[in-house]
Structure formats: structure tokens, C-alpha cells
Amino acid sequence: MEANEAKGKVGFAYWKKIVILLCAGWVTIWIYRSALSPVYPQIRESLGGNVSDTALGSISSFYFLGYVIMQIPAGFLVDKIGKKKVLIPGFIVFGIAAALISQAQSLGMIYAGSLLAGLGCGSFYGSAYSLTSQNIPKEKKSFSTAIVNSGSAVGSGLGMILSSFLVAQQGLPWQTMMYISVIMIICMIFAFQAIIRNNKEDIEALKQQELNVVSEETENVQAASEKVSFTKLFAPKMLFTYLLYFATCYAYYMTVTWLPNFLGTERGFEGAAIGFSSSLVAFASIPGALFFSKLADKYMHKKVSFIIILELLAAAMLLLTVQANTSTFLLVALISYGFLGKLAVEPIIISWLGENAPQVGVGTTLGVFNFFGMMSSVIAPTLTGSISDSTGSKVMGFYIAVILLVVGTLLFLLANIKKKTNS
């Protein structure tokens, strides 16, 4: 009896550490991701001043191109060799990339560093959510996933605030944020090494706790290695889920990349106010994610309804953001978009996906899902920059994001209505 209780405590301690560790991982990644967009004017000035918005937006696009390229390969590697062996080398590459950008003397060097950073960070998604899937108790999965995801909101907010304050307001070099990122990445590498079990330790610990997760995961890995059914993986229900996630990510990454610049150049915000206002989207998403994921865990049969309602409301708030004629109205719309948007709905989509996806290996399924979503992050920054160069405004970029959200949501609704009709 006492032995079993001791084992239970060990298991609980480990999954709790995993949640905290992965949350910190997202904080680190997102401080880096959000650090450059608020200081695009300073980057332009350091490169001689003759740099277009399209070229600046491409900094983010190169990062996400590398990130997208790594999704499916990283998913397969997670299933084949383990999370730790994928995650740590990925973060080493990430650290090298941030250091390279800090020393960049040309836009091409920044692009190269951004691409390399994306490749390194691409190791994180499949590793992280394979760890949560394997170690977190089923009844706590959605809420725990929301806590992990909240790291991206905290990192995004901190990155924007620190970048705007230290660089735009205090006048420090824009490379300062890259130095901060390198230090944080090194700390995370040591934390991954200290906390995450290797494959043999993980399997042995799970056997001792008499969990069924090991056998389920082993079956999934074997299925992935023997035969992946692309027919099931890209069935209409799954395909429309990928498209919905594409639209969700498009709106979010377009906003994260260009909102600071939009507020500064088109809405009259200055200095630290730009970073603070932009960070409202990130910080408002934390209570939204925790609240709606808790609600989705309670009413598990209503997940599709939650997804559809949240997506449509997020589209409405994004529309109100660009149509707002006062600063107060704009900030209320931004807070509402953060509360209802990507980080609030993503844990529910991931949970729904886990219940409906074909059993082909956790890492593989998540890799394909995130590949589709993150493709939008390659397109959105550059396309919005190009629109800004052509029209002198980024408003049309926001409208495109709203249209994609509405269309993606309606397709997802259609797929699930057909499923109910067929059943």
C-alpha cells in the first residue's frame, strides 16, 4: 500500500515537472519570436535604412519556414528515437542561431539565422505534446495543455514589452534581446537534460506505475513505422481540422508579427506603449485558455461547439480591432481577441484531435497537424508586409485573417455536421 502511494507521488511529481518545464520552453521560444517585430525600425536603421516592410516581414517568415520544415521529420524522430534526443539538439541549434543573429551585419545573415532558429525550435512541438500525452493524467490533459500553452503567451508578452522598453525606449541595441534569448536557451538545455527521462527510464517508470499509456504509445509507434494510412490522415474531417488550424495560426501570427508596427505607424502609439498594448493579446489569452479548457474538460461532448463559437468570436474581435476609432475601443478589442483566440481554442482542438485522429503515433499526428498550421506563419508576415508596401497600410492584412477564420470555421462545421448525419 505504502509502496504504491510512493510510486503515485513520484509519477505525479514527474508530470507536474513536465508541465512547468514545457511552459518554460514556450516562454523561451516566444521571447525570441516576439523580440524582433517591435524593433523593425531599429533593424532597418542598422542596415542602412533602405529595407522594405516585405523584407522585414520575411525575417519572421524565414523563421517559420524552418519551423514548418522540421515538423513532420521531428514528429517521426520523436516516435523513433525519443523526445530528449530530439529536443536537446534542437535547442542547441536554436541557441547557435540566436547568437548568429546577434552578430549579423546584413539582412541575409539575419535570414540565415532565422531559418536556423526555426529548424531548432521545430524540435519542440512534437516532443512537448508527446510528453504531455504520455505523462499527464487523462482527466487533466486539456487544462494541463492550456498551462503549457500559456508559456507562449507569457513569452510573447514579455518579448514585446522588453524589446519595446529596452530598445525602443531606453535606446539599447536591438541585439540585446538576442543576448537575453541565448542565456535563456542555455538554461533550458540544462533543464531538459536534468528533468526529462530518457526512453528506457520513461518506459520503466510507466511500467512501475502500471499505466496503459506505454502499450498504447508502443502500438501507435509500431503503426507509424509499419504503415501510415494517408487516407485516414487526410480524410475530410481531418483535412478541415488542419485548414481550421491554418486559419487560426494565420490570424495569430499575422497579429503577433505586425501588430506592434501597426500600432506605431497607423494608430499613433509610441515607445513602451507599443509593447504593452501588443502584449495584451498574449496576457489576455492565459485566463481564456485556462477557463475554456476547464469548461471543455467538463463538457467533453461539446468540444466542437466550443471550437466553432470561439473561432467566430475571435474573428469578430479581430475585425473590431482594425475598425476601432478610439484607443480604448481598440485595446478592448485586442484583449477580447486574446481571450477568445488561438491560445484559448488550441488546447480544445488538440484534445479533440487526440480523440478523432487515426492511431499512427502521437508525434507523427501532431507533426502533420502543426505542419499545416504553421504553414500560415510562413505566409502571413511576408504577405502582410507586401500589402503594406503596396497600399501603405496593414489593414487589408487583418481583413484577410478574418476571412480565413470564418471560412476555416465553416468548413470545420460542415465536416462535423456530415459526420453526425452519417452516424
From TrEMBL:
Transmembrane portions of the chain: 12-35, 55-74, 86-104, 110-131, 143-166, 178-196, 239-259, 271-292, 304-322, 328-353, 360-384, 396-417
Origin: domain of life:
Bacteria
- Keyword vocabulary terms for this entry: Membrane, Transmembrane, Transmembrane helix, Transport
Domain Major facilitator superfamily (MFS) profile residues, every copy: 18-420
Cellular compartment(s): Cell membrane
* GO molecular function annotations of the record: transmembrane transporter activity
Q: Topology in the membrane?
A: Multi-pass membrane protein
- What PROSITE patterns does the entry give? MFS, SUGAR_TRANSPORT_2
This protein's record includes keyword Transport: yes
Q: Which GO terms describe its cellular component?
A: plasma membrane
Q: What is its main location?
A: membrane
Which named protein is this? Major facilitator family transporter
Species of provenance: Enterococcus phoeniculicola ATCC BAA-412
**Highest lineage ranks of the organism?**
Bacteria, Bacillati, Bacillota, Bacilli, Lactobacillales
